[in-house]
């Protein structure tokens, strides 16, 4: 097992090496784009027939036999079948996620200003939303909760889940989470074809307005291509963590934190910043030891060797501009007093403060959303929230007097822009 | 001049005809997509050299001669050169837009819950934003204000404007608006190549994090393709207005309102809902009369004939579900009491209430943003706001006691999901 990249910020070649790390793209290739375009066209043209054929191809089952929808009873039975420990864990998670997201509900405004103009804005939920839930390795009940609960908190009336069921097999944990989260429909379709069905609609599956949820490269590309036909959450890339840690941490703890991202996928990335060479070595050793005993060791080991990095800085605060350039999905500040760093860092999806806040606690039960911007997109985008399932309508009302006060400026500007009908529509009302 | 589509909701064929109207796509074709892909690749590979060559091709001037940037002094001179009437109109607009958008600034949260978990979220501005301003017919100073002011209100430190200057000619109104809005850099580049420069950066133009602003089909497609490399505002299609009007309106007023969208572009769409056939006829006549005298009559006439519609309903409230299906960019409720309709309508970008609120007053001086979702996207997206230039970072802090309280549920869920390093990173801290 080769080790990860080791960089020292005092090295004269550091700037170039760090830029290479920042700009390394771990996203999927162009072939996917062509495949997805073809699948979207096919579903749009052939509807349910395309879904049935593609499901037979990819998931090896016949939807007319296994059933297109998972009946509500099966979700309820899955919930009843959970062990008491797991059921209370999911319920705690659901409650905490709901509580956190309730605070995100936006406030409407409606007021009249000094000119007599009434103006404001009003938020409302989209009519219908779709949540994609992967099958196979990444079939996570936590992901169901994190996508479905904000939609329901927003007030979405029709919440549709799509999920592939390879060879017809459902995942009871996912179904139980759907039941707890209040999902209204569960369809046994996955891949780019499921995203197409949600966006365009088919005879069976009515279209939705917003599609969220993680997926493989085909699913992500389908969402990207359908952006504008439907709303989507940010296009997701491989998961990432940056840990800023001093030498007073237990190296085993930090190693586990780095591996909690690395175990997701070989393309995941874990980066440690520290100010102590000996501590860096201890963490590197601990990572290798843990990889050897983890059931997910092979994936984690590949991720760590290919994409991991340990970066030595003279002072932990020196990591600040470097972290901002990485704009990581997850940032752990494993120091006694994280406040000075926290106050200054600008770009990160979510920040985990102090030695007792491993990133994984945020993945499940803390409350904030675990759907977060990856691939440096925390520079400009945010984690999933209630707002992703709502839209804002602005409004305006002039009295005759208010229009007389602000209308002439509109007439002047419309004239200057060469838009006479704009000018006329205001001017014609000014004499009344 | 042929008239617009006339529909009567009581006609048995109405449902099909209305569905055709709703689903008619007035968006650009697939050739544009290939052209844009090639331009983006070229700018990414060749940087400024590609910008210079494409500008010579499309805009017919040599950037090394005319200058890449418009100097600040030229913007200041443009502002000084405005007529007093126009200057005070732009300043009134800027002030009102700033006031409205200041209210959109989001509030951070930071609290500790009963379990002892500190959690919250913090909003911050993106570092840099780019605003596209079209040249030629659609070079609108109001558009500069509507895009640039929200960015500055958000706190964006570096605000870059790109705008084509055909044959080197700048538009003084646009430059004056840039000066008033606080734009930091103005570059003489346009088209898909300008969007590529903003997203990827070149030697001269540093990259930005968010790109907004209207443009032709190439610009819109470039934004769509670069979504994810940068943040963008919603992909914009042709402008639209729906007017709901009773017979007590002056037909000339309503005609002017319909034409204020139609004059933008032949692909624009204006739709009238009314409950009175005679009134519908009067509006149709007034529209044709106004088209004959408007300087923009040719464009407006084509738009009205090709995309316009007058829809008769038995009761104006019957228009409600039809308007929601159209989810128009602009909705005017030209009735004495708009409240019952306003209370129930779900999908519209912006709503103009009552007889004295022509849509054009919102285009310029009212305060709310005129960058609004088109093409039925008001079902899931919102007008441009301060939030488009900001992002939210969530954060979390556990004490040892708080982690003992919620951590075991995270361990249980991580175990159930088959992610042992996630479980370990929490479990390893529970004994301390």
Automatic annotation (TrEMBL), chains A, B:
Catalytic-site annotation from UniProt: 329 (proton acceptor), 330 (proton acceptor)
Keyword Protein biosynthesis: no
Keyword annotations of the record: Amino-acid biosynthesis, Histidine biosynthesis, Metal-binding, NAD, Oxidoreductase, Zinc
Binding site for substrate: 239, 261, 264, 330, 363, 417, 422
Pathway the protein contributes to: Amino-acid biosynthesis; L-histidine biosynthesis; L-histidine from 5-phospho-alpha-D-ribose 1-diphosphate: step 9/9
Signal peptide boundaries: none
Top EC category: oxidoreductase
GO terms, biological process: L-histidine biosynthetic process
Keyword Oxidoreductase part of the UniProt annotation: yes
Stored InterPro entries: Ald_DH/histidinol_DH, Histidinol_DH_CS, Histidinol_DH_monofunct, Hstdl_DH
Documented EC number(s): 1.1.1.23
Top-rank taxon: Bacteria
Cofactor detail note: Binds 1 zinc ion per subunit.
Cellular component terms per the entry's GO annotation: cytosol
Gene3D superfamilies: 1.20.5.1300, Nitrogenase molybdenum iron protein domain
One Pfam family from the record: Histidinol_dh
Positions of Zn(2+) binding: 261, 264, 363, 422
Cofactor entry: Zn(2+)
Role according to the record: Catalyzes the sequential NAD-dependent oxidations of L-histidinol to L-histidinaldehyde and then to L-histidine.
Similarity comment text for this entry: Belongs to the histidinol dehydrogenase family.
Protein name: Histidinol dehydrogenase
Annotated organism of origin: Sphingobium boeckii
Source species taxonomy: Bacteria, Pseudomonadati, Pseudomonadota, Alphaproteobacteria, Sphingomonadales
């Amino acid at each position: 097992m080769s080790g990860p990249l080791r960089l020292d910020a005092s090295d004269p070649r550091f700037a170039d090496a760090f830029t290479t790390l920042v700009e390394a793209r771990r996203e999927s290739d162009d072939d996917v784009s062509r495949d997805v375009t073809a699948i979207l066209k096919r579903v749009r043209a052939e509807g349910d027939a395309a879904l049935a054929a593609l499901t037979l191809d990819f998931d090896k089952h016949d939807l007319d036999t296994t059933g297109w929808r998972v009946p509500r009873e099966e979700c309820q039975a899955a919930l009843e079948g959970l062990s008491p420990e797991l059921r209370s864990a999911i319920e705690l998670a659901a409650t905490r996620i709901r509580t956190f997201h309730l605070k995100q509900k936006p406030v409407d405004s409606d007021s009249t200003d000094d000119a007599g103009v009434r103006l404001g804005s009003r938020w409302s939920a989209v009519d219908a939303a779709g949540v994609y839930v992967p099958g196979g390795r990444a079939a996570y009940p936590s992901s169901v909760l994190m996508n479905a609960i904000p939609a329901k908190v927003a007030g979405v009336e029709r919440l549709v889940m799509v999920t592939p069921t390879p060879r017809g097999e459902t995942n009871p944990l996912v179904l139980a989470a759907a039941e707890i989260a209040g999902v209204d429909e569960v369809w046994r379709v996955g891949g780019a074809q499921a995203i197409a069905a949600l966006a365009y609609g088919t005879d069976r599956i009515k279209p939705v307005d917003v599609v969220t949820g993680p997926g493989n490269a085909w699913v992500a590309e389908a969402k990207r291509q359908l952006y504008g036909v439907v709303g989507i959450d940010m296009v997701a890339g491989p998961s990432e963590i940056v840990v800023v840690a001093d030498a007073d941490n237990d190296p085993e703890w930090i190693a586990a934190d780095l591996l909690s991202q690395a175990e997701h996928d070989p393309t995941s990335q874990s980066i440690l910043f520290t100010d102590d060479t000996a501590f860096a070595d201890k963490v590197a050793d601990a990572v290798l030891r843990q990889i050897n005993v983890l059931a997910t060791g092979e994936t984690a080991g590949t991720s760590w060797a290919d994409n991991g990095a340990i970066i030595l800085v003279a002072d932990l605060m020196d990591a600040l501009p470097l972290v901002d350039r990485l704009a990581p999905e997850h940032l752990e500040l494993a120091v006694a007093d994280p406040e000075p760093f926290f106050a200054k860092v600008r770009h990160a999806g979510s920040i985990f403060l102090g030695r007792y806040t491993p990133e994984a606690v945020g993945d499940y039960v803390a409350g904030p959303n675990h759907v977060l911007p990856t691939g440096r997109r925390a520079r400009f985008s945010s984690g999933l929230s209630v707002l992703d399932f709502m839209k804002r309508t602005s409004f305006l009302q002039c009295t005759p007097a208010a229009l007389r006060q602000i209308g002439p400026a509109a007439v002047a500007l419309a004239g200057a822009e060469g838009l006479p009908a704009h000018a006329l529509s205001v001017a014609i009302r000014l004499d009344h």
